[in-house]
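Marked as duplicate of an earlier ticket. Keeping the data here for the record.
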Amino acid sequence: MVKEKGIGIEGVEAPKDTCSDNNCPWHGSLRVRGRIFTGKVISDRMAKTVTVEWPRIVRLKKYKRYMKKRSRVKAHNPPCLNAKIGDTVTIMECRPLSKTKKFVVIEVKKE
């Protein structure tokens, strides 16, 4: 029997499905800590990986204006959450899982 463990973040509920992925923060042994971001999935072509993007505004001191930029990161996509293109997801920092993956999906908000 797999015991549900919480990851200690208010407002984030555990998924209804279960999985046997060791890199799942809910059902595996992956510890999460650090930064939390909310963004949109723009790619899910890689195995167990999604690309998440969110907009941000940067101030240009020289011109005294603001510029729109976007941040993109790769995140581990556990089978119990299974985020698809267009989903709004919450990701959280974890240990490096590969050369470019340092985040994991902890919640999927379907639109």
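See parent ticket for discussion. The domain at 32-109 is CATH 2.40.50.1000 (OB fold (Dihydrolipoamide Acetyltransferase, E2P)).
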